Amino acid sequence: MTELAVADRDGAREPRAFFVYGTLRPGQPNFRRVSELVLEAEPAALPDHVLYGRGMPYPYVAPGSGRVVGDLLWISPEGMREALRTLDALEGYRRDGHRNHYERRDLTVLSQRGAARAWVYVAGRVALARLTPDLVVAGGDWCRTGRPTGTTRR
């Protein structure tokens, strides 16, 4: 187990990773926005959540009985402030209590190394109200089944 795998178990007050499930995943168009801050990326899953985004230009997650496939992006400690600023702006998150496009939450995700805390952008109230069952991505992996062809950015 590397130092990254135990980083969230050492009493850190905030996560040191992001769980990404759409355009921010490695190989996707928005990964370049944070790639220089990423120490390591590893496959992971977010339990007890559903992925919405079938045929949409970008996906959302919301609590539900399912599992979302994505990646953990471990960020260098000195790069975390910049990563938060960059990703909050991209995801339309200002802070709790606002009409955010996405809400940033401290959640537990699972990887081959075990459970880890990570920042996850989940659907904000306004977006959540528009999500319907026909938009659910079967299998929870937007990169395999939910992404429309030709999607390049958000």
Question: Helix and strand succession?
Answer: EEEHEEHH
Which strand-content bin applies to the residues?
35-45%
- What does the largest sheet look like? 5 strands, mixed, barrel
Taking pLDDT < 50 over at least 5 consecutive residues as the criterion, the unreliable ranges are 1-10, 149-154
Task: Report the top-level CATH class.
Answer: Alpha Beta
Number of self-contained structural domains: 1
What CATH calls the topology is Hypothetical upf0131 protein ytfp
Rg is: 15 Å
CATH architecture: Roll
Helix content: 10-25%
* Outline type: globular
Average pLDDT works out at 87
Count of runs of 4 or more consecutive helical residues: 3
Q: How are the strands ordered across the major sheet?
A: 1-3-2-4-5
| Distance separating the two termini | 35 Å
Summarize, please:
By secondary structure, the protein is mainly beta.
What structural keywords apply?
154 residues, mainly beta, 5 strands, disordered N terminus, disordered C terminus
What does this structure look like?
The chain has 154 residues and is mainly beta. The chain starts with 16 loop residues before the first strand and ends in an 8-residue tail after the last helix. It has a five-stranded mixed beta barrel with strand order 1-3-2-4-5. The chain has three helices and five strands; from the N terminus they run βββαββαα. It has one domain: Hypothetical upf0131 protein ytfp (Roll), CATH 3.10.490.
